[in-house]
Amino acid sequence: MAFQTEYEFVLPKGYVDEEGTLHRRGVMRLATAADEILPMRDPRVQNNPSYLSIILLARVVTKLGDLQMIDTRTVENFFTADLAYLQALYRQINEGEGTMLKAHCPKCEHEFGVDMAFPMTTNGA
User: Fold this and answer.
1) Where exactly are the structural domains of the chain?
2) Strand, helix or coil at 70?
3) Other Cβ atoms within 10 Å of 114 Cβ, number
4) How far apart are CA 17 and CA 24, in angstroms?
5) According to DSSP H, which parts of 14-102 are helical?
């Protein structure tokens, strides 16, 4: 099996462009060291560290629907559900962190783990 560097996704809500077109399917690539380091010099990150995730996603989301380019302005206009989804996907594919959550049954109080890993789509998804 080849080493995977790109991951397809489907946004929960989707990005609506200026023409009103909804874009949900996209591709995210693995981040490089430069993706993590270079944005730290950006004044927007220095003024607001939370902006780092906007720049990171603009760098690693390589495709979204029919858009010709994904930049920080595009990412700034994602719905919060989609931003959270992409941030979690970024962590999952780059850091390999598990996404196991503790849960319990409200009836019997049994505690168990739920894997909230985001399914990676295939070309046919």
Assistant:
1) 6-98
2) coil
3) 10
4) 11
5) 33-37, 43-47, 52-60, 72-76, 80-95
What phi and psi, each to the nearest 5 degrees, are found at residue 52? -55, -45
Structure confidence by residue, pLDDT tens digits, 71-97 = 999 999 999 999 999 999 999 999 975
CB 58 within 8 A of CB 38: no
End-to-end distance of the chain based on CA atoms, in angstroms? 20
Encode pLDDT of 2-21 as tens digits. Answer: 788 999 999 999 999 999 99
3 state DSSP class of 61: strand
Residue whose entry in the numeric block shows the structure tokens 């023409």: 19
Instruction: Tell me if 114 sits within 8 A of 100, measured CB to CB.
Output: yes
Interatomic CA distance for residues 50 and 80, integer angstroms: 14
**Can you give the pTM of this predicted structure?**
0.75
Q: Which amino acid is at 125?
A: A
